[in-house]
C-alpha cells in the first residue's frame, strides 16, 4: 500500500512539474515572439543635475507593446523573462537599442547625455557580459562614458564575483549606479570597495520625506554617506516641490521623477530635453 502511495506521489509530482514547465514554456514562447516581432519599446526618463541645473541623463525603461493588451509594464514580464532566461536576449536588445538611441540624439545635436540601462541578475552574471557590452559600444559608436549600468544591491550578495565584474565594467569605461538603494543589505565596507559612480535612493524613501521625519533622516543619511564615499547621489520618484526642496537642502546631486518628467517615448525626447533645459537655465518658469 505504501509503495502504491509513493508511486502516486511521484506521478502527482511529475504532473505538477509538467504543468509548471508547460506554463514556463508558453511564457517563454510569448516573450520570444514579442522580441522577434519588435513588440518591446524603450521609454526614457530625464534626470536633472540640481546644482548645474541641466538634464544630464535619461534612464531607459522597457515596455511591451502588446496588440491585445496595450502597453505592459516591466514588472509584469521582467520577472518571467528572468525566470525563463530570456532576459539575456531581451537585455541585449535593450542595451543595443539604448546605445543606438543615445548616439542618434548626439548626432542630432542634443547636449550629450548619459543613458542608464537596468541590468537583471542573470544578465549581470553572464560570462560574456563584458564582451557583449564592448561589442555594442563598438557597433553603435557610443563613447562608454555615456552609458551607465544600473545594478541592485541584491546582485552584490556574491561579493567577490560581483566586485570582479564591476572592475571589468569600469575598465571598459562605462558608469555604474546602484539602483533602489536602501532596500538591500549592502555593508559600508562593500560599498566602499565597489567601483560605483552613483547611488540611486529608492523611491519608497523619497515618497515619504514630506510626511515622516524618519524617512527624512534616512534620505539625509544616504546622501551624506554617498558623498563620504565620493559617489553622486540621485533620488528617484520625486513627485512634489516639497520633496525636491528637501533633497536640494540636503545637497542631493540629481533627481529623477514625475516632478521633472514621466518616462517618454523617444520621439518626444529632443523636445522634452530642450524644454526642460530652457526652464532650468532661465529660471523664468522654474522647475526648481
Ligand atoms: P527602476 O529601475 O527602479 O525604475 C524606476 C521606476 O519608477 C520606473 O517604473 C519609473 O517609471 C518609475 N517612476 C519614475 N519616476 C516616478 C515617480 O515620480 N513616481 C512614481 N510613482 N514612479 C516613478 P517602470 O518603468 O514601471 O519600471 C519598473 C522596474 O522594471 C524598474 O525599476 C526596473 O527594475 C525594471 N526595468 C525597467 N526596464 C528594464 C530593463 O530594460 N531591464 C531590466 N532588467 N529591468 C527593467
Ligand atoms: Mg533603474
Ligand atoms: Mg529604482
Ligand atoms: Mg525598482
From TrEMBL:
Assigned keywords, A-Z: Coiled coil
UniProt entry tagged with the keyword Membrane: no
Domain of life assignment: Bacteria
Protein name in UniProt: EAL domain-containing protein
Domain EAL: 24-277
Organism: Brevibacillus fluminis
Keyword Manganese carried by entry: no
Amino acid at each position: 500500500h505504501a509503495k502504491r502511495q509513493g508511486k502516486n506521489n511521484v506521478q502527482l509530482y511529475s504532473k505538477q512539474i509538467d504543468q509548471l514547465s508547460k506554463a514556463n514554456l508558453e511564457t517563454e514562447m510569448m516573450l520570444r515572439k514579442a522580441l522577434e516581432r519588435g513588440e518591446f519599446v524603450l521609454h526614457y526618463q530625464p534626470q536633472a543635475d540640481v546644482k548645474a541645473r541641466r538634464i544630464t541623463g535619461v534612464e531607459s525603461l522597457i515596455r511591451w507593446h502588446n496588440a491585445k493588451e496595450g502597453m505592459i509594464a516591466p514588472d509584469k514580464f521582467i520577472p518571467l523573462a528572468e525566470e525563463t532566461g530570456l532576459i539575456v536576449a531581451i537585455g541585449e536588445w535593450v542595451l543595443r537599442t539604448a546605445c543606438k538611441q543615445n548616439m542618434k540624439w548626439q548626432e542630432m545635436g542634443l547636449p550629450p547625455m548619459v543613458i542608464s540601462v537596468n541590468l537583471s541578475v542573470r544578465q549581470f552574471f553572464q560570462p560574456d557580459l563584458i564582451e557583449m557590452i564592448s561589442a555594442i559600444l563598438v557597433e553603435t559608436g557610443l563613447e562608454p562614458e555615456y552609458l551607465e549600468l544600473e545594478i541592485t544591491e541584491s546582485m552584490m550578495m556574491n561579493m567577490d564575483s560581483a566586485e570582479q565584474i564591476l572592475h571589468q565594467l569600469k575598465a571598459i569605461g562605462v558608469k555604474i549606479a546602484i539602483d533602489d538603494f536602501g532596500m538591500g543589505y549592502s555593508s559600508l565596507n562593500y560599498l566602499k570597495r565597489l567601483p560605483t559612480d552613483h547611488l540611486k535612493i529608492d523611491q519608497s524613501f523619497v515618497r515619504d520625506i514630506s510626511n515622516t521625519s524618519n524617512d527624512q533622516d534616512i534620505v539625509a543619511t544616504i546622501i551624506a554617506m554617498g558623498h563620504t564615499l565620493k559617489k553622486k547621489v540621485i533620488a528617484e520618484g520625486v513627485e512634489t516641490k516639497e520633496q525636491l526642496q528637501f533633497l536640494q537642502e540636503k545637497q542631493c546631486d540629481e533627481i529623477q521623477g514625475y516632478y521633472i518628467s514621466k518616462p517618454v517615448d523617444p520621439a518626444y525626447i529632443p523636445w522634452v530635453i530642450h524644454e526642460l533645459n530652457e526652464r532650468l537655465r532661465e529660471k523664468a518658469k522654474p522647475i526648481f
